[in-house]
Design goal:
The chain has 306 residues and is of the alpha/beta class. Helix content is 36%, strand content 16%. Belongs to the arginase family.
């Protein structure tokens, strides 16, 4: 018998916050890789809610430090509403992006749900990047490099106040894993905010096991664990299908250990899978790896473990 609630797949097909086109095809690439069938084979109840519909990507240059701000706000509003609706029905939403700007909407919804339920929130941010840029710090204006900052209250009102007048989360709720690319101005801001970061230097020195043990410390029965999985977390040798590859990421076994240790907690209540870009992929190989890792988040392991 599985210990997970019914799952809802929510496709959010947009690359409006990214610097490369193509992530809008991510949800359907995950479907081609049989994400629904794989999860059902684990005995899980899965409903595919289809794809949300929002503004097209106009592919314009940044204005006042932000590219496509109005469109990004609208897509995040739609994402927030869809994720919150599933949580309210006692379901586990998997937001299939789309680029990582969409985590602003999904995590705003999760944070609201946790406040209403009186639950603590822990966010695992699996990514090559800290995504803690602002309009003043960003070299590109691409909002997929800003969602953690926006969630913590640093950014345009349309995103920082998506779920109300206060920041959706506090930096103390976030654990970032796999980081290996941080813009110059962003480094100081990450340090000042006190974000807990397990970068690849840390993982190289102490191992994925210790990084995950520390990132998961303090979880209890009243903690909702949200996993925001940017596929560029993975080393590009196993996951080439992203627009922002950074060499030196977790290998396949390190990634599997990460996911298995998350599954062992039994606390995951929501998930983002983002930045999968089939335009850069090889025969959907990255989508297949992503689905394999998602299966591990839901308890796949080599042997039965106590």
């Amino acid at each position: 018998m599985n210990r997970f609630p019914p799952i809802s797949l929510i496709g959010v097909p947009t690359d409006i916050g990214a610097g490369h086109r193509g992530a809008l095809m991510g949800p359907d690439a995950l479907r081609v890789a049989d994400i629904d069938k794989v999860l059902r084979a684990r005995g899980l109840e899965v409903a595919d809610r289809g794809n949300l519909s929002g503004p097209v990507n106009p592919w314009l240059p940044p204005e006042d430090g932000y590219r496509h701000l109005d469109g990004v706000i609208e897509w995040n509003r739609l994402t927030m509403e869809a994720v919150y609706a599933e949580l309210s029905e006692g379901r586990l939403p998997i937001m299939m992006g789309g680029d990582h700007c969409l985590a602003t909407g999904s995590i705003t919804a999760v944070a609201r749900y946790c406040r209403e339920q009186g639950r603590k929130l822990r966010i695992l941010w699996l990514d090559a990047h800290t995504d803690f840029n602002t309009s003043e710090l960003t070299p590109s204006g691409n909002i997929h490099g800003m969602p953690v900052a926006c969630l913590c209250g640093h950014g345009p009102k349309g995103l920082t106040e998506l779920g109300g007048s206060k920041p959706a989360i506090d930096p103390s709720m976030v654990r970032q894993i796999g980081i290996r690319s941080v813009d110059e101005g962003e480094k100081k801001f990450v340090h000042e905010a006190g974000l807990e970061v397990y970068d690849m230097r840390y993982i190289d020195e102490f191992g994925m096991k210790r990084a995950m043990e520390e990132a998961l410390t303090g979880l209890d029965k009243n903690t909702h664990l949200h996993v925001s999985f940017d596929v560029d977390f993975l080393d590009p040798s196993i996951a080439p299908g992203v627009g922002t590859t950074v060499q030196g990421g977790p290998n396949y076994r390190e990634a599997q250990l990460c996911m298995e240790m998350i599954a062992d907690t039994g606390r995951m209540g929501s998930l983002d899978v983002v930045e999968l870009n089939p335009a850069y992929d090889d025969h959907n190989r990255t989508a297949e790896v992503a689905v394999d890792l998602v299966e591990s988040l839901f308890g796949k392991s080599t042997l039965i473990r106590g």
